[in-house]
Design a protein that fits this description.
It contains two helices and ten strands. The protein has 178 residues and is mainly beta.
Length: 178
């Protein structure tokens, strides 16, 4: 059997950072944006940055005052819904939990609103790199490891667009009678 993996680069557009447009009710703390802001989830303080890539994302690199988050140790089923349904996210939110491997290598797990834990989220990987840049944790070109495989994400200074590169593979063949 011959398998051909094709890499595809997609222009994901410009990130939306204005808090009211993400949307979040968290108070803007950097201009009109929410960057490394404190969010209380069941009495635990998390640092979060809010980004929309056409859908809302709450990105966290860990608890307030903690060192690097270890994403494989998280109980996503327990904590994910608490972020998704938090009162400060009127449209609910996707949440990315991120571990910094290096300034060009991030590892994330995602809780998607309405779907739960998923193997990958392209808009989430884009939001993660934007948040990492805004927080000074990474450069504008990163490999983002997800359970479903890595993606290459670039937040271009030239046009402010986020570009995602990853494999395109056939996952289903089918037909529908008309």
């Amino acid at each position: 059997m011959f398998i051909c993996v094709v890499l595809v680069r997609v222009d994901m557009g410009e990130p939306i950072l204005k808090a009211s447009n993400v949307p979040t009710k968290l108070a803007a703390n950097e201009g009109q944006s929410v960057v490394k802001s404190e969010l209380d989830v069941d009495g635990v303080s998390w640092n979060v940055t809010c980004v929309s890539m056409g859908n809302p994302h709450c990105v966290t690199f860990g608890l307030k005052g903690s060192l690097n988050l270890q994403v494989d140790e998280l109980d996503l089923v327990q904590i994910g819904p608490k972020f998704e349904h938090h009162e400060l996210f009127p449209a609910r939110t996707n949440t990315e939990f991120v571990q910094v491997i290096s300034r060009s290598h991030l590892k994330m797990r995602v809780w998607e609103r309405g779907a739960g834990a998923t193997l990958a989220c392209g808009t989430g990987a884009c939001a993660v790199v934007v948040a990492a840049v805004l927080e000074g944790r990474a450069g504008r070109f990163c490999t983002v490891d997800l359970p479903g495989g890595p993606l290459e994400i670039e937040w271009s200074e030239e046009d402010n667009h986020v570009y995602m590169t990853g494999p395109a593979e056939v996952v289903f063949y089918g037909s529908v009678p008309l």
